[in-house]
Amino acid sequence: MYGLVNKAVEGLVRSRFGDDSWDKIRIKAGIPDEPFISMESYDDAVTYDLVGAASSVLNLAPEIVLEEFGKYWVLYTGEAGYGALMQGAGNSLPVFIKNLDSLHTRVKLSYPNLQPPSFRVTDETANTFTLHYHSHRAGLAPFVVGLLKGLASRFNVNVEIAYTRVEDEAPHDSFLIRWEPIS
Ligand code: 1MF
User: Fold this and answer.
1) Where in the chain is the domain with CATH 3.90.1520.10?
2) What is the pLDDT of residues 106-121, one digit of tens each?
3) Residue 175 belongs to what H/E stretch?
4) Ligand 1 contact via 88 beta carbon (within 6 Å)
5) Per-residue pLDDT for 80 more than 80?
6) Strand, helix or coil at 32?
7) If you measure from the C-alpha of residue 83 to the centroid of ligand 1, how many angstroms do you get, rounded to a whole number?
8) Residue 182 alpha carbon to ligand 1 centre in Å
9) Ligand 1: residue whose CA is nearest its atom 25
């Protein structure tokens, strides 16, 4: 994944748990003490190792680390140079999610090593929809839950999320989402 992702993991750990925790996690993950470069491609193992090391150093289940990272990613990219990209994708939860594939297509035009997942919406009603998440990468459903919660706070809505793993011809993660404006 692009270094931007690892930089965001570092930002989450430093801001929430401090610089000493980051040093322990980085060392446990076997990563040299050099800055991540946003536009450079890193092996996905770097990111998975960071999540694993954070889980053990912080004594949090990996699913919790991933979910917190998902929430943080929405905040981080809204601030760290991607504010316009995020704004352009829409100003409500369902609209934003329906625009994610085209957001990724736009990023991939400039950064061809991007391996974006796909987010498809079906069964939409006024306050519910089903999100189908297809990824090249395994085990990231808890990260998507965090992304959804981060988007919910971005758009001032409450969300309920029911997760199902779908094992058909195209195995993927499915999320039944119910949302309502915070009153
Ligand atoms: O393959 C990749 O490197 C990659 C990196 C990030 C693919 C996708 C993403 C974004 N996505 C992360 C989860 C991927 C998990 C998976 O593969 O299944 C999160 C998508 C998302 C969901 C909800 C709300 C916002 C979201 O993301 C917005 C976004 C997406 C991509 C970027 C920024 C914001 C982005 C921009 C530039 C990138 C990489 C990603 O690379 C750079 C960075 C700096 C300089 C040059 C290139």
Assistant:
1) 90-181
2) 999 999 999 999 999 9
3) strand 172-181
4) no
5) no
6) coil
7) 13
8) 28
9) 74
- Phi and psi at 43, nearest 5°, equal -60, 140
Q: Which residues of 81-104 are buried (b: 16+ CB within 10 A; e: fewer)?
A: ebeeebeebbeebbebbbebeebb
Outline where 141-181 has alpha helix (H): 141-154
- Length of the chain counted residue by residue: 183
**Would strands 118-122 and 157-166 be described as parallel, antiparallel, or unpaired?**
unpaired
Pair 146, 68: CB distance under 8 Å: yes
| CATH number corresponding to 90-181 | 3.90.1520.10
Ligand 1 neighbour 117 (Cβ under 6 A): yes
Tokens 């736009």 -> residue:
106
What is the identity of the amino acid at 3?
Answer: G
In the structure, what pLDDT confidence band is assigned to residue 183 with cuts at 50, 70 and 90?
A: confident
Dihedrals φ, ψ of 150, to 5°?
-65, -40
Q: What is the pLDDT of residues 24-68, one digit of tens each?
A: 999 999 999 999 999 999 999 999 999 999 999 999 999 999 999
Give yes or no for a contact between 86 and 56, defined as CB atoms under 8 angstroms apart: no
The pTM is what?
0.97
